Amino acid sequence: MTFKDRMDARMSALCQRVADRLPARVIRRADGRPYLVRHLICRLPGGRRLYLHRFVASDDLDVIHDHPARFISLILAGAYREERAVHVPELNGPSITDHRHGRGSVNRIRLGRWHRIVLETPEVWSLVYRGRTRRQWSLRRILWRSSAEGRWPYRDTPMPPATDSDWADRPSGRVVREALAAEAQGARQRRLEVQFVKTKEVANAD
Description:
Elements: H1 3-19, E1 24-28, E2 34-44, E3 48-55, E4 63-65, E5 71-77, E6 79-88, E7 93-102, E8 106-109, E9 114-119, E10 124-130, E11 139-142, E12 154-157, H2 173-205
Antiparallel strand pairs: 1-2, 2-3, 3-10, 4-11, 5-8, 5-10, 6-7, 6-9, 11-12
């Protein structure tokens, strides 16, 4: 294990100890898989928030999204690649640029930025400042990709209104962490059972 890996592991452990004491909310992908665990650190004047984020999966391959508020994110542990989509009229779609964010880097996410997060490590922790809500958030589903042209034709998908959930009733980060661990164990068990059945079917066929 390299020095960088050891530092990431120590910082991840520290973030988890802090997160265990904070209220938590799980944000899931379209397929139901956990994507992000959001922990509320504090509320700030004017509808602003300070969060501790833990990414546990990449965005769906065919989806990009924007945000209803400005974000400033400081990466505390791990690393991810951000695919930013900037509309180019000549291409009739967005042009894609890649930006890597590792421990210690700051990612400023302005209104109107369409992007997709791709994890380079199993999890990524970040300290996030969120401004007040300015607009509805949106999701776009990619129809096809052309890396040669950097072109992503897309179709917009209606999303529910952006709301600030009632954090008073949210479970602690520790409860959420244990629930997600049990969920992952159950998923692994189901995959093993399916593999066993397929192996048995092949053996019987022979």
